[in-house]
Request: fold
Amino acid sequence: MRVVEGRALLRGRFEQCCIGIEDGKISSIKKIIKGDPHFDFGGNYILPAGIDIHVHFREPGPTHKEDFDTGTEAAACGGISCVFDMPNNLPATMDAQTFEEKRQLAAGKANVDFGLYLALQEDSRPKDLSDLRSPFKIFMAGKKGGLAFGDYGRLKDVLEETKNTQMHTSVHCEDQNLIAKNDGKSLEEYLRSRPNEAEASAIGILADAKAHICHVSARESLPLLENPNLTSEVTPHHLLLNEHVDLAGFGKTNPPLRRKADQMAMWEGLISGRIDIIASDHAPHTIEEKQEEFSRVPSGVPGVETSLPLMLMQVKKGNLNMGRLASAMMETPAMMMGLEKGSIEIGMDADLIAVDLRRITNIRADNLHSKCGWTPFEKWEAIFPLATFLRGELVSKDGDIQETGRGMMIQKREKP
Ligand code: DOR
Ligand code: ZN
Ligand code: ZN
Reply:
C-alpha cells in the first residue's frame, strides 16, 4: 500500500499520521503504516489538494494562450488536483458533439482531474444536456458574437429547467444593459465602464433561481447572497488587488478590479461564509495581447497556479484560518460538484498536498507553468506545495511535474 505521512488535517485538526492509499482512495489512517512507496513529510502539513471550479484552458481554440497540458501542469504545481474548465472555447462547448470533441482533446493530456462546463444560451435545452452529467455556465454579458445570454426574460425559464436537472449552474453576473460601450484607457476608467450596480443588478435578475455566482466582486452583491438558493465564489485577484494596482492592461479583467472598499468587503464575505468558495477564474492571455492599446486588451488574468499558494500565505499572515481555507478551496467545492475529494477521510480520493508553512517564496512568472508567461502577482510572497498527489500518484514535486496524463474526466454520478 502507498503511504503519505505527515501532520494531516483530519476533521478540522492537525494530527501526525500515516495515510494509507489503495486504488487511488484513502483506505486507512493510522499512527503507523508501512508503505511502499512511503512518502514521509515529517512534521509538515498534509492537506486535501485544492479544487478550482473556474478555469479557462482555451482548448479547443486559442491554444497559443493555454492548453490542457500546460493548464493542468500549472494546476498540479499549485496544489490543485481537480479543475472545471469553462466552455467559451472555439467552438464553444454547448452540445453533445462539442463536449465529446473537447473531452477527447483533454483526455490523456490532463495532468489533474477535470470537469467540463456546458454553455447555455437562449435555445439550449438543459434537460437534454443533463445526460452529459456536467455543470452548466451562463454568461450574462459578453462581446457580440460571443456566448452572452442576452434575453433575461428567457433566462428565468432556462434557470427553472436547470433547477430540475440538479446540475450545478454557474453564472457570470454582469448586467449587459449597465455596461458602457467604451472600455476607457485605464483600470480606473474600465471600472467606471462596468460599475458595481451591473453585478448587483445581474444577481437580482436571477431572483429565486438555484445558481452559483461566479467571481463576486462588488460590495453591493453581498446582501443578495443571503438568498439560500445562491452559492458564490470569489477570486484571489478580487481579494488581493484593486483598481489602483500598477498593472495597466494586465489588470483588465471581468468583473473589473474594484475599489479598496469592495476588496475589504470580499474578505468579510469570505471569512463570514457569505461567499462560499475561492476559484481562480484562470483566464490567460499572452503578454503581447495584454500590451495592446487598452481598449483592445482582452480581459482576464491567470491564477490557477498561484491561488492556493497566495491563500496559504494569507493563512501564514493570520488573515485567514486554515479551517476556512480548507472549506473554501477543498471541502465545499468538492461538495458542490459531488466529488469524492476535498477532505482526508477513508473512501475519499487520495488527492493530497504537502505544505511547509515556513517555506515562503516570491512568485516569478518564469517559475510558473501557464503558457501565458506572466502573473499579476509577480514578486508576491506565496507558499507553494512541496508535493501534489492525484489519487495517490505524485503528480508534482517542488514545482516540477512528475507523472503526466493521469487526469480523468469527472461527470456527476447518477443518484442511487
Ligand atoms: O475576464 C474574463 N475573462 N472574464 C470572462 O468572463 C471570460 C474570461 C476569458 O475567457 O478570458
Ligand atoms: Zn466570468
Ligand atoms: Zn471565467
About this structure: The chain has a mean pLDDT of 97.
